[in-house]
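User: I'm preparing a small set of examples for a lab meeting where we compare how different chains pack in three dimensions. I only have the primary sequence for this one, and I'd like the structure in C-alpha cell form so I can line it up with the others. Please keep the answer compact; I'll paste it straight into my notes.
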Amino acid sequence: MQVTSLTWELTLGVLIAFLVADVLVVARKPHTPSMRECTAYLVFYVSLAVLFGLFVWRTWGGQYAGEFYAGWLTEYSLSVDNLFVFLLIMAKFRVPERLQQSALLVGIIIAIVLRGIFIALGAAVINSYAWVFYIFGAFLIWTAIKLAREGESDDDEFEENRLLKAVERRFPATSEFHGSRLTVKQDGKRLITPMFIVILALGTTDLLFALDSIPAIYGLTKEPYLVLTANIFALMGLRQLYFLIGGLLKRLIYLSIGLSVLLAFIGVKLILHALHENNLPFINGGQPVHSVPDIPISVSLGAIVTILGVTTIASLVKSSRDRRVAESTAESKTAAVTGDDNPLA
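Assistant: Understood. Below is the C-alpha cell output for the 345-residue chain.
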C-alpha cells in the first residue's frame, strides 16, 4: 500500500480540523448534550468512517478497505468497553454532568496522542522483527482469557492506579470542581482540581486499553495508515456515544465475553500469520510454515461482524428477559404483602 506524504498530510489535517472544531464547541459552552445532539454527531462520525472506507476501496482496492473496516469495527467495540470504565471514573470522582463532556474530550485527545505513539512504535518493531507477531498473538490470547474471567465478576468499582495515588499524595488539591480548570490559585498556592485527577485517570486508563487494541488491529492490517485512521475514527464520536448509550452499557452483559472471543480470534490469526513469516530457528528450522492456514481479511471481517452481532443480540435478549422476571417477582411480592392474589378481581 503506497501512501504519499501528501495523502498523510491531507488525512491528518482533515481529522485534526474535526477534532479542533469539536474542542471549540465544548470549550465555548460546557453542557450535557441532548439525545438528539448525540445521535446527530454519532451518525455523522460513523458515516464519515464508512465514506473513508469507500475512499480506501477506490484508491487502494477492496483488500485494504476490508482491513480498514475490520480494524475500525474492532477498535470501536473495544472503545465501547472503555466507556464502561469511563462511567465508573465519572461516578468515582462525582464529576458534574455538565463537565463530563470536557473531561471526555481531553481524555480522547490524550488517547489519540498515546495511540499514535504506540502505532509508530508497533510499525517500527514489526518491520524489524517479524517474530513479534508471536508475542502479539500470545498476549491477545492471554488478554482474552483474562477478560473472560473478569466478565464473570460484579465489581463495579474503579480502583485508582499507583500513578493517581502518587499524584494525590504529592500535590495538594481542591475538594471542589472549578469548571473545567485543571489548577487554581488559593491563598497564594497553586492547587490542582479534581478535574486534573479525572483527566489523568481517563488518560492512564486508555493507555492500558491501548496495550490490547494496538496488537489487535495489527493482527488485521500491517499498514500504519490504516491502523492510525481506524483508531482515530473509532475515537471520534466516543464522547457522544458515552452520553447516548450510558444506560445501554448495563444491558450489554455479554460484552466482555464477546470481546474475549474477538481478541482470541485475532490472537490465533496473528500466530498463524507469524508461522507464515517464520524466521525463528527453533520453529521448522527457521523456515516459514505454509501448511497452516492464513486467515484472509474477508473471513476476519465476517467473524468480527458475527461475534459482535451475536454478543449484542444475546445481551439484549438476556437483559430483557431478566427485567421481565424481576418485574414479575416484584408484582408477586406486592400481591403477597397486600394479600391480593388477583389484583383484577
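A couple of notes for your slides: Residues 297-338 form the longest helix (42 residues). Residues 162 and 168 are 10 Å apart (CA to CA).

User: Perfect, thanks.
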